[in-house]
Amino acid sequence: MLATLLIVFREVLEAGLIVGIVLAATKGVPGRGVWIAFGVVAGVAGACMVAAFAGEIGALFQGSGQELFNAGVLIVAVGMLAWHNVWMASHGREIAQEMKKVGSEVASGERPLLALAIVCGLAVLREGSEVVLFLYGVLAAGGTSMTVMILGGALGVLAGAAVSALLYLGLLAIPTRLLFSVTSGLITLLAAGLAAQAVAFLHQAGYFQILTSTVWDASWLLPEDSLVGRLLHTLIGYSDRPSAAQLLVYVLTVAAIISLMYSQRGSRSAAPKPAPAE
Fold it and tell me: At what angle do helices 54-63 and 32-52 cross, to 10 degrees?
């Protein structure tokens, strides 16, 4: 039961951290709960489908289908997170000033809630499929009973959800005027970490064999599979043995998102303000 609890806890925590950051980043936006809930439900459904066809997916592309699938999921998530941050660069101040009375641009649907719903769905899809596959493997191996596995899984879900909720509540405690800056920073690092993970999957699949040398080995100090290591891995893309390509992609992703955000802010401030109504 302990193994099931720990694995489920880890996967739920990784997905829950992303959902918590997204919820904090959309504080005060109408309809965010519906969009994010839709993303989570779709992710759960997708995870079950991925687990059901895991064998077929893995057999694709000469046996590297699962790695390519994971890389594709991460790349899409990076794009959605970058879109959100660029949008926030031009609209975040309006939302911060009108948390209850949202501006017309936000209310009219220009805010990329769909993008964040997709991010939540992909997070749940990736982690959920790993949970389903793990539990299926344990059950098939006959190492434990169904009752014990369900109990361990349920405790893991509760523990992961509780820690994720604590992060969300901690973010909400940040003053509104700083909230969007903090969440934008977290999302930038999150996107960079996902991009670096996508490179790692492409390395494993044999489709990206450039700059594969290990830059450093910090596994003796903070193993990536430890609890703290997994938290940092999810939040900022920590890797105890990153390749040169992963590090390069991480830095380039951060630089690209920040550049796009500043560019959007500049164009927004340079735009002529509408004349006051008479």
Answer: 70
